Amino acid sequence: MIQFYLTLVNSAESFSYNEIHTAYQKGCGKVIGNRLREQRKKAHLTQAQLGAQLHLSKNSISNYERNQDEPPDDTKIKLAKILGVSVDYLTGASDNPSPYVDASNTVRLPAGMPPQAWDELRLFIDYLKFKYLQHKEP
To answer: How many domains does the chain have?
Structure first.
């Protein structure tokens, strides 16, 4: 989809902003509605249930899915979180549905670690959870 838009913008012909925007809406702009519907159904949510989580009406969700209206950016972020996908995926900027991971909470171990090292790490994490989250001394 993005490639279509870039081809249109980079072509030798001259287009007005309105022509480019209209072409984008007809091509790329429909991605969010289709992906929203697809991900909502994968999550086994009705339009009313999804709308309730966002404090929106069923009709608003329906309008988003039918590309009659585009959700505001803050709603796109909430939709992505609820559906477990990235905003880039919902909007068609990426074909990777995986949300971005906050690397600050990620521990990388060297490749080739034996399975028992992973088991030990899990036990150590459980210990740290107990020590710092559950075992509070008065």
So the answer is: 2
pTM for the complete prediction?
Answer: 0.56
User: Is 20 in the same domain as 81?
Assistant: yes
Average pLDDT score over residue span 58-64? 96
Both 6 and 49 in a single domain?
Answer: yes
CA dist., res. 90 & res. 70, Å (int): 11
H helices of 1-138, in order, are 2-10, 17-26, 31-42, 47-54, 58-65, 73-83, 87-91, 115-129
Q: Which two tokens stand for residue 69?
A: 């209206």
Output the domain CATH number for residue 67: 1.10.260.40
